Amino acid sequence: MPTELDPVDVVTIGVGWTAGIIAAELTKAGYTVKGLERGQEKTLADYQHQKDELRYALRYEMMQDLSKETITFRNDDSMTALPMRRHGSFLLGTDLGGSGVHWNGQTYRFLPYDFEIYSQTVERYGEDKIPDYMTLQDWGISYEEMEPYFDQFEKTCGIAGEEDPMGGFRSDSYPLEPMVETKMIRMFKDASRELGYNPIQMPSANLTSAYENPDGQQMNECQYCAFCERFGCDYGAKADPIMTVIPTAKDTGNFEIRQHSNVTRIIEEDGEATGVIFVDTQTGEEFFQPASVVAVTSYVLNNVRLLLTSEIGTPYDPETGEGVIGKNYCYQVMGSATGFFEEEKFNTFMGAGALGAAFNDFNGDNFDHSELDFLHGGEIAITQTGRRPINNNPVPDGTPAWGQEFKEQSLRYFNRSLNLRLQGSSLPSQNNYLDLDPTYTDQYGDPLLRMTYNFTEQDRNMAEYCGAVLRDVLEEMGADQVEVDNEIGDYDIVPYQTTHNTGGVIMGDDPDTSAVNNYNQMWDYDNIFVTGASAFAHNSGFNPTGTVGALAYRCAEGIQQFLDNGSGQLVEAKKRTKA
């Protein structure tokens, strides 16, 4: 029998951005919160003097141990899913702060179109514009309702940026001025404007000056060292959970973090969660943590898997389209172009995770899709994240992959080439989903999560159309040779593409088609809240963390209302439910 612990008001499963925000807000209100973190507790001191590309960028020091827990993957139902045995397409973080510690810091707001994508698409183009296989739906909330939470997250992080004329309205400016405009960024902006587009400096959680956030947490100025993605920031200059919300929660005295604690089950009785079972990963001992509210705040894939193994909610059935847990798994569609310059040189070895510029004229519904064979679009951007020497060898097509010529071309073009990207949306398909694998299990004997996913005709058409813009911009920038990669085949679990997995526990205003309401409260279990990118009904052409943070603040508000008022569905969410 598991050892039963003293009850708390809220237990969080994982302690990253979402759990940190929930803990900070609820502990400030006087509630007790316990965070169960299966990794180790880390602080800023753990990341100092560790700019080791081999250890962190290539050997994945900060990532999940795939020998103990992984997923299985297939493109469609006719295939047998096999375990992912090495990190590739996306990187699953571990330890305190999770993926929020090793992120780049690019912090966008989703567009107004994203939150009401079905309604706005039908209103402008008609229902026939949506393919039969596409399970497109609104989120049950509007951008106008989300805006205050975006603002709150940006002020917690000290986001540096400038207003985007192609984005939603802002009630306030960014807390900090944009990052520096380097030579390559200035060239990109000039070329984009010449072509009629609206470039902006990328919104950044790499701070441009020392900053104290509204909770009193102090952060430092970015040094442009180029060690952001896959690394913790040893300067304390990248907003992450261990620099912001986690210290705020701990300062109240109402937050306890229990490390090395892997949650294996949510326990429910009569339609209500009573707590969670977790395993101490060092001793193997099981514990039961009672709680008034269970907040499922792990990474997307782990949120879905835990609900399925706990038999919480109805699993999604791709044959009938019924069920909600595992539904609308989405990823992101990428395109790129490389421009090679014979005379121009750039300091590509310098940079920061969110140093860059972008335009969103081809994102969302910012352009007319009437005659196009796809919906949505993506962000066109240049980033100067810093080319580290081991993993960057840009050479023109036709160059041998090894030998003297490869070495010469690598050295020549290391600082004479620039890369532009398309970061495209991912719209849901009835055939892309998450469920439990019938064959493979983890170290505890529980089924692995199975991912069934492939790019769709929509994805390929969008990537080809929007990705063609990359060539125009690079040529306008003066590149002597441009190579474009905007044709996509079948999705593969390698190589790395983006860690922007979304969906599986999606939000909406109808319990038949969504798992959680607009407070991320489960329709079927009033005291279970599931937040994070798993709540996204589709994926936009932006990095997701800004929207994840905003949803977490709204979720925290909902949990507090629930605890203050007793039980039941939250009033505002209930009003939005279809009759």
Q: Look at the structure and give the CATH class.
A: Alpha Beta
Q: What is the residue-averaged pLDDT?
A: 94
Q: What's the architecture in CATH terms?
A: 3-Layer(bba) Sandwich
Question: What profile does the largest beta sheet have?
Answer: 8 strands, mixed
Please report which band the strand proportion falls in: under 5%, 5-15%, 15-25%, 25-35%, 35-45% or over 45%. Answer: 15-25%
CATH T-level topology: FAD/NAD(P)-binding domain
Number of H- or I-type helical stretches: 12
Give me the count of strands: 22
- Please give the radius of gyration in angstroms: 23 Å
Q: Give the full name of the CATH homologous superfamily.
A: FAD/NAD(P)-binding domain
How much helix is in the residues?
10-25%
As residue ranges, the low-confidence spans are 575-579
Could you tell me how far the N terminus lies from the C terminus, measured between alpha carbons in angstroms? 44 Å
Instruction: Domain count, please report it.
Output: 1
Shape: globular
Structural class: alpha/beta
Domain Glucose-methanol-choline oxidoreductase N-terminal: 141-330
Organism: Bacillus daqingensis
Family: Belongs to the GMC oxidoreductase family.
Protein name: GMC family oxidoreductase
